[in-house]
């Protein structure tokens, strides 16, 4: 596996490998790779001949400067994990090289998809996601790109980006990977203490309870009860717990043949912002 740290190095490697004549897979990440990322790389490899994993802590998608500065950066370990999962190359340019100067993002307005939930809580976040993924798609030019359902709203945003600006590209969605405890894997979990990791399980439990409520036919009551439980939990600062249609990111309260209802949650534990979601089997 090779490490490519500039656009030129990427272009040269791609030419030497016959990239544009092959079925190629791409997995964009911000590094601090864990088993969730590895599952995406393995899925990409199972559907393509060559796989590039990008690693870039993208400044334009952070609305919190401290979150950006303290985001874990572990390139050496990431290289081993990417290789073990089947990557052929890691593309890790500087932000300045990828953006061709000072990293900047154009505002994107795609209704609730970019402005509800994560978009409302993290103003400008999806502007940065769209900016960096658009540039990465242009640079890497893959046949398919894999994204994790862990970032459910991001999946919707990327599907629209691909449809509008990269029509030949296939977006593949990979399931959310959890710790054996049930905690959704996240690079930010590294910032939690052991106690914080245990406290964070309350989010997973709330999602399970809402999923059960949906199966029992009273999803609204389950949502209200779980919101109350999380608000009463001193270790958790709840941002939102809601049921929505993953196609539109509009709240869902039943019905609609096409709808893809999910329960979603965002909360802080020990000052670490965590998100999680689960499909509702209605
Ligand atoms: P990140 O490095 O956090 O930007 O994530 C890079 C990609 O990995 C995104 O498509 C994420 O949705 C995905 N990902 C992160 N955590 C998980 C997880 N626990 N399960 C599945 N995919 C994940």
Which helices and strands occur, and which strands form pairs?
Layout lengths: L1 E3 L2 H11 L6 E6 L5 H12 L3 E6 L9 H6 L4 H11 L3 E3 L3 H5 L12 H4 L2 H4 L3 H16 L3 E5 L3 H14 L4 E5 L19 H22 L3 H14 L4 E9 L4 E2 L9 E9 L2 E8 L3
Parallel strand pairs: 1-4, 2-3, 2-5, 3-4, 5-6
Antiparallel strand pairs: 7-8, 7-9, 9-10
Helix pairs in contact: 2-4, 8-9, 10-11
The protein binds adenosine monophosphate (AMP).
Lateral strand order in the biggest sheet: 1-4-3-2-5-6
Mean pLDDT across every amino acid position: 97
Query: Largest sheet, if any?
Result: 6 strands, parallel
User: So, the CATH homologous superfamily of the largest domain?
Assistant: HUPs
How does CATH name the architecture of the largest domain? 3-Layer(aba) Sandwich
Q: What's the overall geometry?
A: globular
Determine Rg (CA atoms, Å).
Answer: 19 Å
Instruction: Report the CATH C-level class of the largest domain.
Output: Alpha Beta
What's the short story on this structure?
With 282 residues, this protein is of the alpha/beta class.
Keywords:
42% helix; 2 domains; single chain; binds adenosine monophosphate; Rossmann fold; six-stranded parallel β-sheet; 282 residues; Pantoate--beta-alanine Ligase, Chain: A,domain 2
């Amino acid at each position: 596996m090779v490490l490519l740290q500039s656009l030129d190095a990427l272009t040269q490697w791609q030419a030497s490998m016959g990239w544009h004549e092959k079925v190629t897979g791409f997995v964009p990440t911000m590094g601090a790779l864990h088993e969730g990322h590895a599952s995406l790389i393995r899925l990409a490899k199972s559907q393509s001949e060559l796989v590039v994993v990008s690693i870039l802590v993208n400044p334009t998608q952070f609305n919190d400067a401290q979150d950006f500065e303290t985001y874990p950066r572990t390139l050496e370990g990431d290289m081993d994990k990417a290789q073990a999962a089947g990557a052929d190359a890691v593309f890790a340019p500087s932000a300045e090289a990828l953006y061709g100067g000072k990293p900047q993002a154009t505002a994107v307005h795609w209704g609730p998809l970019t402005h509800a939930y994560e978009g409302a809580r993290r103003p400008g976040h999806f502007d940065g996601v769209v900016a960096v993924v658009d540039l990465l798609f242009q640079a890497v030019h893959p046949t398919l790109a894999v994204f994790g359902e862990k970032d459910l709203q991001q999946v919707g945003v990327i599907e629209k980006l691909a449809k509008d600006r990269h029509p030949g590209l296939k977006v593949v969605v990979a399931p959310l990977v959890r710790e054996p405890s049930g905690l959704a894997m996240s690079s930010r979990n590294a910032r939690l203490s052991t106690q914080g990791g245990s406290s964070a399980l309350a989010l997973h439990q709330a999602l399970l309870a809402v999923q059960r409520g949906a199966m029992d036919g009273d999803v609204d009551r389950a949502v209200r009860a779980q919101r109350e439980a999380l608000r009463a939990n001193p270790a958790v600062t709840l941002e939102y717990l809601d049921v929505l249609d993953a196609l539109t990111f509009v709240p869902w309260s039943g019905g609609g043949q096409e709808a893809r209802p999910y329960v979603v949650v965002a909360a802080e534990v020990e000052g670490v912002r965590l998100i999680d979601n689960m499909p509702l089997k209605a």
